Amino acid sequence: MRPKVILFGDSITEMAFKNEGWSSCLANHFCRKVDVVLRGYSGYNTRWALKMVDKVFDGIKLGEAVAVVVFFGANDASLADRSSSFQHVPIPEYKTNLKAIISYIKEKISSTAVIVLITPPPIDEDGRIKNPYGENTTGLPERTNSDAGAYAEACKSVAMENNLPVLDIWSKMQEFPHWEKTFLSDGLHLTGEGNKIVFEELVSKLMEQGISIETLPIDLPHFSDIDPLDPLKSFI
């Protein structure tokens, strides 16, 4: 009955239904208009995501999705010589993987769904040193902001090549003072304010593509449109 908006990404997507999460805000915003389907996988890069993409979308019927949001790159951008090197994916492969995921969505999910790419976020290197994943004895961050920026540029390049909308949160967040602690809880994952900016920018990007609460039909009649003297006729 309702179209679906599917969110496919890593831990920043997996955690997006937590308090003030950008996915929960999206579900509330589109209440009774779409079903927000969360497919977030903590720690995954595009290499792993591509390997299991058919399992991710299993059960999603062809044409059900009105939009698919693809949000990968934060783990791909892990440095090849640091503590999270097992997550690293070189930029050329990252771009190839994104293109393959896009092709899969177009061929298997919907040829008409709006596909929105989101770049990896900026990195607060001090936050990553203080909140490392696993053992990190080097005292160095396993990610750097400049490398995350290179992957953000690669993501934007893929979007441009495929004529897709892209949300550049790497650049957007850095427009604000003190972005490091305002938007990032541990140098990588989002605070409430970080979730808010992703939500607001995504709603704006979807609106540009014609997907909004104004354009989407409501699911079943609004109660004000139901005849109180003969309510059941509204559901025939």
Provide structural commentary:
The chain is an alpha/beta fold. The chain has one domain (4-235): SGNH hydrolase (Rossmann fold, 3-Layer(aba) Sandwich), CATH 3.40.50. It is 39% helix and 11% strand. The protein is built from 10 helices and 5 strands, in the order βααβααβαβααβααα. It has helices at residues 11-14, 22-29, 46-51, 53-56, 91-109, 125-130, 145-161, 169-173, 179-183, 192-208, and strands spanning 4-9, 35-40, 65-71, 114-118, 166-167. The protein has a 5-stranded parallel beta sheet with strand order 2-1-3-4-5, with helices on both faces. Helix 2 crosses helix 10 and helix 5 crosses helix 7 (145-161). The longest helix is centred in the middle third of the chain and has 19 residues, at 91-109. It is globular, with a radius of gyration of 19 Å. Belongs to the 'GDSL' lipolytic enzyme family. This is Putative Isoamyl acetate-hydrolyzing esterase. Keywords: Hydrolase.
Write a concise synopsis of the structure shown.
By secondary structure, the protein is α/β, with parallel strands linked by helices. The protein is 39% helix and 11% strand.
Number of domains: 1
- Main sheet record: 5 strands, parallel
The largest beta-sheet arranges its strands as 2-1-3-4-5
Helix content bin: 25-40%
The secondary structure category is alpha/beta
* CATH fold-level assignment: Rossmann fold
General shape: globular
CATH superfamily: SGNH hydrolase
Please work out how many helical segments DSSP would assign. Answer: 10
Query: Could you list the spans in which at least 5 consecutive residues all have pLDDT below 50?
Result: none
Cα(first) to Cα(last) distance is 15 Å
The CATH class is identified as Alpha Beta
In round numbers, the mean pLDDT is 94
Order of helices and strands: EHHEHHEHEHHEHHH
What would CATH call the architecture?
A: 3-Layer(aba) Sandwich
Cα-atom radius of gyration? 19 Å
Q: State the total count of DSSP E strands.
A: 5
> What share of residues are in beta strands?
5-15%
InterPro entries: GDSL, Iah1-like, SGNH_hydro_sf
GO molecular function, one term: hydrolase activity, acting on ester bonds
Family: Belongs to the 'GDSL' lipolytic enzyme family.
Keywords: Hydrolase
